[in-house]
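Input sequence (121 aa), recorded before submission:
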Amino acid sequence: MDFLGTTLRTAVAFAAALALGGLASAPASAGTTSAAASSEAGGTAFLQGCGWNEGRGGERASYEHCATNTNVWIQVKRWPRSNYHRCVGPGRTNLDADATGAWYDSGYQGGLCSHPGDTGP
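Predicted structure, token format:
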């Protein structure tokens, strides 16, 4: 797949996420993420969707923040440890090995944050 095709797929996934509520304060299981598999040069590439992305093929779970100009608070669900909030910037953020879900939390400190990597209860 060429660069233009990858860019187009990413733009379509982002537009779909916005149409479904954008930065909604709901778990990704509510249908706010998308992912598409594609073949690239005979190998398999996985296009991450906005929001929660379950770990696959030995990769850790991650959260993909698709906006380019904000840092936001997400709630990270873990098992067996307790849940917590984390500030994430644009792009992919790898999560804890025991993360079982993550979503944007507009109710936590107004939803926006200043320093990616900061954590809270």
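Checked by second reader. The first strand starts at residue 36 and ends at 40.
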